[in-house]
Amino acid sequence: MRELSRQVRGAGLRVGLVPTMGFLHEGHLELVRRAKADADVVVVSIFVNPAQFNDPGDFENYPRDISADEAMLEAEGVDMMFVPEAEQVYPPGSASRVIVSGLADTLCGPGRPGHFDGVATVVSALFNMVEPDFAVFGEKDYQQLQVIRRMAADLHFGVDVVSVATCREPDGVAMSTRNERLSAAERQQAPAIYRGLCLASDAWQGGEDSSQALVGLVASEIEAAEGMTAEYVSLVDGATLQPVPRATAGCVLAVAAALGPVRLIDNVVLQSTASAVTAADNEETPAHA
What we know:
Blueprint: H1 2-10, E1 15-20, H2 26-38, E2 41-46, H3 56-61, H4 66-75, E3 80-82, H5 86-89, H6 115-130, E4 134-138, H7 142-154, E5 160-164, H8 184-189, H9 192-205, H10 211-224, E6 228-236, E7 252-259, E8 262-269, H11 279-284
Parallel strand pairs: 1-2, 1-4, 2-3, 4-5
Antiparallel strand pairs: 6-7, 7-8
Helix pairs in contact: 6-7, 9-10
């Protein structure tokens, strides 16, 4: 993989990487399309990373369908599908981990000890294996995105980290492989998360900047959804991910919630009026936020 990448780059061409864990959906394909817009050669990696799962059962049950993934990527015109084995990513005796302090210690961090160490470590390995000019990640996993940005800068990878807006279902639910594990009844409750985020975004546009008030709007929608429990709802600084008492442009409302056996995450970045996402927008054009 590295030799192929070096040949491409040696010819003056740009390599774009889209790291995934497979079982691809439209959200992943949006990342692919973004990479294709800026790269001469697009590499999509598929690797279910054991180091980022807290529950071994969750790792074993993570859905996999390489044949379907390959067909989707071929239809999108992807140049290379890179599917390393665990022994290649983590050689026998592997004892090194990448830890991004601070950013990994908030939001999802306390409830998923070691998760972001696993993410940072595998992305570091993939950057070294593929040696891309840039890599594309989704904004749904906002904390992961910030961790990777920090890691790439701190370790001088020379890889630009590009983000793509969250891709959503028509009812606003953020696209995720985990959605496949929801029952029909649970899936009907899932839009409560984004509905609450839109209500809070609307309130901020209307002049409400209290963290307590905005978080309360989101939490109320989640609490009203049958079978859904909030793990956290937090208003944080968009760069540091630390909680803030008052909302300003660029702050992030972030959510993690359990719906049946499935853990869902979502967020909105509070934006200026011209680019804000509102509940009304969600009813008409909910594709991105």
